[in-house]
Amino acid sequence: MLDLLVIGDCNPDLLVAGTDVVPEFGQREKLVETGRLVVGGSASIFACGAARLGLAVALVATVGDDAFGSFMLDAVGERGVDTSGCTVVAGVDTGLTVALVRDGDRAMLTAPGAIPLLTAEMVPPALMASARHLHVASYHLLDGLRPGLPALVAAAHASGATVSVNPQGEVGDGSGAELRALVPAIDLLLLNEREHESLGTVDGPLVVVKHGAGGAAAYTAGGVVRAAGHPVEVVDTTGAGDSFDAGFLAAWLAGEPLEGALALGNACGALSTRALGGITAQATMAEARAAA
User: Which one, of 162, 179, 161, lies nearest residue 170 by Cα?
Assistant: First the structure.
């Protein structure tokens, strides 16, 4: 039995970090302190964080038949995530994000590559049937999946699973309308502040908004529940929201109160920022509980 089936992106992050990482055109070469290839992609970082917390996790995504794809499947698998449902697409590049990191902030350039080629038909029915919860990440990048997502949500509910979505970015006009239409059918929508502002008011059973160092809030029919942020010395915020999602869902699926789920999510998100990359400093459950 799977705790989580995660559907979304599986692409590496090429982190370029230093005090001055802003490139200059005109064929100017600038030296920086650090360059590192790490696990990226909202779905992959979330899956690794959930597995780190002790949940049984499987990932469904598309990668290219290249070195980046092999790197991702190996690295995510080493974290204890089942990648047997991932599809390797011949002749296509694996998605790639170049992240420029300085002073706890980052700017990103993403080449989607194989990410939009994922379709609902590629999701193995056996994995769907065995999961307690379905989590969809990087919704705005999943052009091929979005048309079939309502049917996947219905299938998940039919098998007794709950469903969450994380847009991982400000959705455009088209995908924003699709997401607003989908929200009433899902159980949980996970947003950051900018996504919340971009989408506006949405009608969902449970909407969680992440405010970074400011903590997080859960909006329900009965009102708003808030939890303060967890202070930490930030090195890199890459994937902090995805690590929050992993912590929140671990507690929520265990039936814990919203206050506790938000606190655990805040702890997981904050602790993940202690090192470069989205999964390097992800917390174990014992570490997260101690911090929460």
Answer: 179
pLDDT tens digit sequence for 272-284: 999 999 999 999 9
CA-to-CA separations, 17 to 45, 165, 211, 232, in angstroms, rounded: 19, 30, 24, 19
Q: Which two tokens stand for residue 183?
A: 């929200």
pTM of the predicted protein model:
0.95
* Dist. CA 272–CA 181, nearest whole Å: 32
Q: Using DSSP, state whether 275 is helix, strand or coil.
A: coil
Domains and CATH numbers, the chain: 2-10+42-93+113-291 (3.40.1190.20)
- The encoded tokens of residue 73 equal 């499947």
Residue 274: DSSP 8-state: G
User: DSSP labels for 172-185?
Assistant: -HHHHHHHHHHGGG
Q: Which two tokens stand for residue 59?
A: 């990932």
Structure letter (DSSP) for residue 27: T
Q: How far apart are CA 107 and CA 114, in angstroms?
A: 22
pLDDT in tens, 152-182: 999 999 999 999 999 987 655 456 788 988 9
Six token digits for residue 153: 């949500």
Where would I find the beta strands (DSSP E) of 70-215? Answer: 87-89, 96-102, 105-111, 131-137, 162-166, 188-192, 206-210
Pairing of strands 206-210, 188-192: parallel
What 3-state DSSP class applies to 198?
helix
